[in-house]
Amino acid sequence: MLTFDSYLAGLRTALDGIDRTQVQRLVDALLAAHAADRAVYVCGNGGSAATASHMVNDLVKAPTDAAGCRPIRAFGLADCVPLMTALANDIDYAHMFSKQVEAYGREGDLLIAISASGNSPNVVEAARVARDRGMVVAALTGFSGGRMKDLADVHVNVPNPCFGQVEDAHMILEHALVELLKEALGGESSAETG
Asked: I want to staple 115 with a disulfide (CB 3.0 to 4.6 A). Which of 27, 60, 104, 123 is the partner?
């Protein structure tokens, strides 16, 4: 029988299963985008869209905690509802992110594509178009990574079959990334250490 404690135990196991090397590679990709003044685009569906929007909020704000550091240029592809619904309705739901990547993305920009299953058609298509444009593709996935794992330059996988725990882990990962970025950019992390 599932209890709150057993749910948390599953989440801890999921977090322990994340490849720390890939987390550092994502931090490095974000730092490289910032150093080159490249744009960072983030997308996802449902709970992952909420994580994507939260990530954009934190990526833009976090560097300002380091005195004199310019913000990261981050944009959420699920944040302009009129454009997103127009693309989904008039073209195809599977292209509502990729058409924005075509419009905005430039070679060297970074796409962070979030999909718990790794198989969301519109997120997969955004990653495919981003790769074709010479962008760096980072994927946050769960389960076994789905189709996203083969499209990503950086693949942070939460090896867990529970959608809720994968989405929880992605949000924890997002906050950890921001704290790591703050320190790397000369600010102070608010996370406890030691």
From this structure: 123
